[in-house]
Amino acid sequence: DSHNKNQQTIEFKYDPLQGLEANLGAAEKLFITSAIKRTKTLEDTWELLQISRSSLYKKIKDYEIDVDSLK
Question: Both ends of the chain: CA-CA distance in Å?
Fold first, then answer.
């Protein structure tokens, strides 16, 4: 079906020495950067991720994601 065509594999390596919070943060950052690369606008990104605009911008700031370098 069309849903499967839109699926993308993201490779994440768990680092047991970093603990749960650090690994969740790294996985979330990877997920967000992947979504930014797949979409044309940040509006498309927050809709794809099903989060609010303010949540996306906060995460971009918190994870120091350089959006311009991903487009």
Answer: 28
